[in-house]
Amino acid sequence: LSPVDARNVLAGAQKGDVKKLAAQEEDRVIKAGPTGSIKLRIVRSEHAKGTLPVILYFHGGGWVLGDADTHDRLVREIANGADAAVVFVDYERSPEARYPVAIEQAYAATKYVAEHAKEFKVDASRLAVAGDSVGGHM
What we know:
33% of the residues lie in helices and 28% in strands. By secondary structure, the protein is of the alpha/beta class.
């Protein structure tokens, strides 16, 4: 399969009658990293208020697959279960982005969120990173 076809297969597999926990979502683009911008999705539980711990989440997918939509259910579960804000870093995938762009975007997003914690309503002293597969590698 081509990267585009493989992405479509994964996106299709993630759709359907799957229960998603209620959550607050906010999509942002920050000016940071090697390409000058990084897409983020900030997810909090439906009832979250005030300053929260923060988890930066990096998705798996072999550097090629996965995005904020394919990992939406998982990120909502983490936000609700941890009572934290989860910042999903929608790094640029291969083959459109070449090594080390994704890794540099992961670092830049983490640094940006830590340095702009008040803007994100998160506590940078309670920052964790998490990911699956290649996201855990980063």
